UniProtKB/TrEMBL annotation:
Name of one Pfam family that matches: FMN_dh
SUPFAM superfamilies: FMN-linked oxidoreductases
Protein family: Belongs to the FMN-dependent alpha-hydroxy acid dehydrogenase family.
Keywords tagged on the record: Oxidoreductase
PROSITE patterns, A to Z: FMN_HYDROXY_ACID_DH_1 (PS00557), FMN_HYDROXY_ACID_DH_2 (PS51349)
Organism: Actinomadura parmotrematis
Name of protein: Lactate 2-monooxygenase
PANTHER family in alphabetical order: FMN-DEPENDENT ALPHA-HYDROXY ACID DEHYDROGENASE PB1A11.03, S -2-HYDROXY-ACID OXIDASE-RELATED
Cofactor needs: FMN
Span of domain FMN hydroxy acid dehydrogenase: 19-388
Amino acid sequence: MSSLADFQNEIYLNGLGDALPALPTDLTRLEELAGAKLSAQAHGYVAGSAGSEATARANRAAFDRWRIVPRMLRDVADRDLSVEVLGTAMPSPVLLAPVGVQSILHPDGELATARAAAAAGVTQIVSTAASYEIEKVAEAAGDGPRWYQLYWPKDRELAASFLARAKAAGYSALVVTLDTFTLAWRPRDLDQAYLPFLRGIGVANYYTDPVFQRAVGGPVTEENRDAALLHWVANFGNPSLTWDDLAWLRERWDGPIALKGIQHPDDARKAVDAGMDGVIVSNHGGRQVDGAIASLDALPAVADAVKGRAAVLFDSGIRTGSDVVKALALGADAVLIGRAYAYGLALGGEAGVRHVLRCLQADLELNMALSGLTRPSEIDLDVLVRDR
Ligand SMILES: Cc1cc2nc3c(=O)[nH]c(=O)nc-3n(C[C@H](O)[C@H](O)[C@H](O)COP(=O)(O)O)c2cc1C
Ligand SMILES: CCCCC(=O)C(=O)O
């Protein structure tokens, strides 16, 4: 039987090999190492969060308030972490969150991430704000499973064009991010006057789009670059959207749709009422509302509200296998990792992302087995206690 945990023996026998710099197997240490390698601006952008970063800290602290209770003698020899979420088969309940502007982390950006994800059979969610065109990312992914994340622009025709392109490039599910129609107050970026988009990073999918080009009078060149940037700024997000607008989206995407950024059970119910297939419980890794509830603390009520009627995904703060166990116990069907793989990309490109995926999945499988669990479906509240 080949298991995700085989990676452990592989490391004991051979180490990590020459392909990788000495990357830590404790993924909570990646940030510190990536910080030493990246420019101050790139590091600030990725590691930073909104305001005083209270929400980012709360996201991590919430995991510590739950403890796993290991169970013994339950025959955990036969283990299978695979799940199916929104029609996509996955080797484990772990996906790669949409992270835009990945070329600030590594020159190959989303292309390297696509290759690593495809090699592991892990689903990559590709952002509208990717540094490479989604068609090129799809080509790098080959047969790899991929979902498309929409930043819903003001211009409806542009939104429709994005959806058509994603469908044509083989993205099987749509993730619509609701919590970032405008960037929050982000002091690390403000203090360095740094925003990747204003330096031409993360706009490739706009500048190459036929609808966008028509609006700025043709392909983006030196001549119309400023006009293109202004058009991007004016169009990136739409603060006027309401729940009624989802009908427009539902008509234009015939695959599964999940709404990302859900924190309240009423919003989750509205998502189901609007014909959505999933919700992603997320506070954007603490990058939007400073002082917001820890995403893990928002999860149980959302899961209670819609479990069985919609897929429940979770992100914000996942760094270890035990974090995944806790999120699944509190109601998630699967989780997304963001910064964890972003730092892997920064430190080792494609091999770095692969390393992060192998570590996290092995850690998850071992944690489950040692707790008496062989399948994600067996993980429920019985495995946790509140730490007092
Ligand atoms: C550098 C960076 C860029 C991001 N870009 C996007 C994006 O383009 N679209 C999106 O929906 N979320 C984006 N996110 C949020 C992630 O999808 C995810 O919600 C968050 O990273 C989860 O928290 P974690 O980093 O603690 O895992 C970004 C996060 C980071 C750190
Ligand atoms: C304009 C926002 C796109 C990237 C993003 O979502 C983030 O930095 O959190």
